[in-house]
Write the structure tokens for this entry.
Amino acid sequence: MNVTDQKDLTKRHAASSGASSDNSAVSPPVVAPAVEATPIPDRGRPRLAIILVNWNRYADTIECLESLLRCEGGFHVIIVDNGSTDGSIDRLQAWAAGEEPYEPPVGPLGRLTRPPLAVPIALRVLSRDEALSKPPTTDTSVTIIAAGENLGFSAGNNLGLQHAMLDPGVNYFWCLNNDTVVDPGAPQAVITRMDATHKVGMCGTQIRFYHRPGHWQVLNGQRFSLLTGQSRGIGANQPVSRPYDARKVARETDFVTGASLAVSRSFLETIGFMEESYFLYFEEMDWSVRNRNRFAIAFANGAIVYHKEGGSIGSSSTRGQRSETSEYYLMRSRLKFYRRNFPLLLPLQYPQALGLIARRLLRRQPKKAWAMTRAMLGMSRG
């Protein structure tokens, strides 16, 4: 074909295309194939109960549920709503009914909640009194207990634990912060590790930073100094590529971090529930002291949890980032812990408390210093 023939062919094609476009309707847009929703696996006979405490953070709770409910394994999911004022219970019900579609977050952890779960999701709401008389059922994926008031971290978890214990088939109880998401194998890894640990009482997990998933917030728990009242997270801020000995981590754990803390039925029946007078902080430490090596501490290193840290009250492990509320309860609970468990060491805490207050003043944080002072003097938060 010569150049002239090519030009003629091009003109005829253009004319044909033009005539076609003039006489035809606009082509419909290309529709992407629908993404199939993730079905909730069959739970079988639950041996684990997972307790979340929600207070005005329904979006975090929904993201946590989206990660949990796609996991394999037999478990109940129980949410204790601590008198939220943001309509949390209504929003959770709307999500479960499919009336408020879930949007997975962008970023690497979106994989844990993408695609969204198939709806509707079986959910029931119980009053506080009903939760203490009606056992969990396998007919529902999620149970919400409406506490009606802010019970605090310890009493909120205790309410969920009391409800879960009404199912005699549940052996283990995992108190998990609602501002977390979990890897798919996390619940089963907790069950497996606790099954494998003789006389197990408490068990922690890997906790990685949600916003820095390549670093640990903590491995299992903390080391605690009785003299200073300060704790140090095992593996804190270390890259997750760093090798560690899981057995050594378990041995060195003085107390399991409360953001991801599982306990056994035998532990609860012997040691009892969390001490509710703390309201926030030091509950898990008090639990460990009451245990006093009666039950073993395990580490489910195969369970990976990603934690956003302190969304409800502004607690944080980052220097200078705690809220006034967090500073108040941390100081109050530290002194209460020593008064309850180590009264002879209580006098040592006051000079250290004054030092911490002075440090806040040097950082030009007078409101935090005043909140800590009120706690030290036994005054209300104001």
Confidence is low (pLDDT under 50) at residues 1-25, 311-317. Residues 67 and 113 are 5 Å apart (CA to CA).
